[in-house]
Design a protein that fits this description.
The protein is built from 12 helices and 12 strands. With about 300 residues, it is of the alpha+beta class.
Length: about 300
């Protein structure tokens, strides 16, 4: 185990640190320009005070603060699994795409997952460009996911599409979840009166919670992922394929933790698990969809 650095620097050590002669160090000490103490006629320089003294002389912009090793945003079960299995050390705090973008903009996370449906069939990039305008962030594709209506096994209510959910018990998501916003858009287009939907009062916070609400009989249907319907052996009516992206600070992209995750996403182990879960297309994983200034 390496020895701890000395608490005090000698005149010679300080001269080497500052790349100046020892005589100059004596001059600085005699003029009260550098923190020092005198003990039995010898000059000593407290290391912490010297480091603070050097830092106080800084000019120009400060370097960006380290980013928390957190992935926020929209919940995705495959990503949640990959964060653990990759050994990246990245933690997950997933409470919706919009919540994640806000946290990213405040530098409260390194990256966030998002699947925000936009005009002309686009995903995420227009929102990122608007919400994080001028910030050095990149949008990288994680996967394409099959989303639709999760129903009880065997579909006893014979639900055929979103137009059939009127009056049913529906498991809704929190307002910061992009899936909830997209469902409301589709429901209005289908002529469904959203105020007439019944179901649990508390929103489901994750994709797994949505499926569990149907499995437990608390809801007749939910707008969720095929992967979750398969996991809980529920029925599934596909509606569309969506693109789930990772939005990340350029600074965070090069961090060892995120690089470790990216390396794992290119592995056969990840591809095999995505295929086993079902409802995922990872053929374009890693594709860059937004990078305004280039790496």
């Amino acid at each position: 185990m390496a020895d701890a650095p000395p608490i005090y620097l000698t005149t010679k050590e300080l001269a080497e640190l500052l790349r100046i002669g020892e005589r100059k160090v004596y001059d600085l000490a005699n003029n009260g320009q550098v923190p020092c103490v005198r003990v039995i006629g010898k000059l000593l320089f407290p290391r912490s005070d010297v480091e603070a003294w050097i830092e106080s002389s800084r000019s120009g912009p400060l370097p960006p603060a380290p980013l928390p090793s957190i992935v926020a945003g929209s919940h995705d079960p495959l990503l949640e699994w990959a964060l653990r299995e990759s050994g990246s050390g990245l933690a997950a705090f997933m409470d919706g795409s919009l919540d994640g973008l806000e946290r990213l903009g405040n530098r409260d996370c390194m990256a966030c997952g998002a699947h925000i449906h936009e005009p002309d069939g686009e995903w995420n990039t227009q929102t990122v460009s608007r919400v994080l305008s001028g910030k050095p962030v990149v949008v990288i594709e994680f996967a394409r996911r099959s989303r639709g209506l999760i129903v009880a096994s065997g579909n006893p209510l014979e639900i055929g599409g979103i137009e059939n959910v009127a009056g049913l018990r529906f498991a809704r998501r929190q307002h910061t979840a992009a899936s909830q916003q997209w469902f409301e858009e589709l429901a209005e287009k289908a002529g469904v009166d959203l105020s007439g939907l019944k179901g649990p009062e508390s929103p489901a916070r994750t994709e797994a919670d949505v499926a569990l609400a149907v499995l437990d009989g608390k809801a007749d249907t939910a707008f969720g992922l095929e992967a979750m319907a398969r996991q809980f052996r529920l029925g599934f009516i596909p509606v569309a394929q969506e693109r789930y992206d990772l939005v990340i600070w350029r600074q965070g992209y090069f961090e060892p933790a995120f690089q470790k995750l990216l390396h794992f996403l290119a592995s056969p182990v990840f591809a095999s698990h995505a295929d086993e879960m079902g409802g995922y297309d990872i053929a374009h994983a890693g594709a860059v969809h937004y990078n305004p200034d280039g790496f």
